[in-house]
UniProtKB/TrEMBL annotation:
Gene3D superfamilies: Winged helix-like DNA-binding domain superfamily/Winged helix DNA-binding domain. SUPFAM superfamilies: Winged helix' DNA-binding domain. Residues 1-88 form the HTH arsR-type domain. SMART domains: HTH_ARSR. This is ArsR/SmtB family transcription factor. Keywords: DNA-binding, Transcription, Transcription regulation. InterPro entries: ArsR-like_HTH (IPR011991), HTH_ArsR_DNA-bd_dom (IPR001845), HTH_MetalResp_TranReg (IPR051081), WH-like_DNA-bd_sf (IPR036388), WH_DNA-bd_sf (IPR036390).
Length: 106
């Protein structure tokens, strides 16, 4: 079952996992060491992130390493960008309004 990427990043533990593996690939055990939860719970989060294609698995010898799938993260960034532009426009309009009010007070 393929899940929605926004469903995956809605969970704080999954977001924390993404942050952990953003710089380097890690094994499930190494990831689990950073959480106060069971290894099985971390595995469930990794399965969801893998189903959403936010992380990828790589077999290295007997270990499986998880790393970030950057292209999928870019999808999230593109979606957020539309709101960033809206808010930047609103803040710029507010700056102009505040400047106008200050000039009128002088």
């Amino acid at each position: 079952m393929r899940r929605d990427i926004f469903q995956a990043v809605a969970d704080p533990t999954r977001r924390a996992i993404i942050v952990l593996i953003a710089l380097q690939a890690m094994t499930p055990n190494a990831i689990a060491e950073n959480f106060n939860t069971t290894r099985q719970a971390v595995s469930k989060h990794l399965r969801i992130l893998t189903e959403c294609e936010l992380v990828k698995q790589e077999q290295r010898g007997r270990e499986i390493y998880y790393s970030l799938e950057v292209e999928k993260i870019k999808e999230i960034d593109q979606w957020i960008e539309q709101f960033r532009k809206i808010w930047e426009t609103k803040f710029n309009q507010l700056d102009v309004l505040l400047s106008t009010i200050q000039k009128n007070k002088k």
